[in-house]
Amino acid sequence: MTDQLTGPLPDPFPVQSAGRKRSGRPNQLLRNLNAKIASIPMVLTALVIFLGGTVWTVVYSFTNSKLLPRAKFVGFDQYERLWAAPRWLVSIENLAIYGLFTLIFSLVIGFVLAALMDQKIRFENTFRTIFLYPFALSFIVTGLVWQWVLNPEFGIQSVVRSLGWTSFTFDPLYNSDIVIYGVLIAGLWQGTGLVMCLLLAGLRGIDEDIWKASRVDGIPMWRTYLFIVIPMMRPVFITTLVIIASGIVKVYDLVVAQTSGGPGIASEVPAKYVYDYMFQAQNLGQGFAASTMMLVTVAIIIIPWAYLEFGGKKRG
């Protein structure tokens, strides 16, 4: 009798308890139902417009479409013509040069500016606004401004020569060997301020105790940045790299405003090649093939990174 009194009491409502557990499953499905319904237009837009448009472009890149798309398949002929075209090869080379130097210089300059801003300097808001202001301008405006600045008749070259250095020469937009670097200067001027703000936000998220501990241990500031702060800011750097890379791949209006692809074809980029063949040369098949190669290039870079970044975490 005593054992029965001191033992655990049985559940007087076993059926109702099981019912409560089963009833939790539909509640999970109905949770945030309004948000899920509201996201349906966005999901449909992504599937129909973006994914559907991508598939449509890839399929018609194997056709002989001219002014209007037509389902006359020619295999890989468009891709063979594409990689045999000197203009396309020049555009790929320019994109590689522009992209590499943009990634390096924008991250280095942006981080240095962010580190200086993080020292709680006076008039920080004013300097931050000045550095970020170029990003508020369109690429067309930026291109036109730097076209004037780099013009040898009344730009930097003219100003320096008026000061006495008559042999000074600086006309990158008129030299086919270095014209892409003139475009690079304008791109860095516009985009570095945004990189600075993103990295400054990451620096402001670092715990002050880390800086205090490094000062107590006598660690130089540059070693603290290099071996402690930068590794902790890895997510911020990844986000910044994605934003920079997206701007590199689609660079078009900056080139059009500054050089229109010249001198000759010296400053051509893939996006301009696609636009010219689709809307000016009226060769949709060639434009589709070029845009597909741009998509493949982005996929080659993004898919391995996404697998290493998210797949490894999921397995861990």
Count the DSSP helices.
16
What profile does the largest beta sheet have?
A: none
Shape: flat
Determine the structural class based on helices, strands and strand pairing: mainly alpha
Along the chain, the helix and strand elements come as HHHHHHHHHHHHHHHH
The portion of residues forming beta strands comes to: under 5%
- For the residues shown, what is the average pLDDT? 85
Q: Bin the helical content.
A: over 70%
Multimeric state: single chain
Low-confidence stretches: 1-5, 15-24
Write a structural description.
- By secondary structure, the protein is mainly α.
- The chain has helices spanning 2-6, 14-30, 33-38, 40-60, 77-84, 86-117, 124-132, 139-149, 156-162, 179-204, 208-216, 221-232, 234-249, 253-258, 270-280, 284-315.
- Helix 6 packs antiparallel against helix 13 (234-249).
- It is flat and about 70 Å long.
Brief sketch in words of this structure:
Residues 92-307 form the ABC transmembrane type-1 domain. This protein is 72% helix and 0% strand.
Give the arrangement of secondary structure elements:
Elements: H1 2-6, H2 14-30, H3 33-38, H4 40-60, H5 77-84, H6 86-117, H7 124-132, H8 139-149, H9 156-162, H10 179-204, H11 208-216, H12 221-232, H13 234-249, H14 253-258, H15 270-280, H16 284-315
Helix pairs in contact: 4-16, 5-16, 6-10, 6-13, 7-10, 8-10, 10-13, 15-16
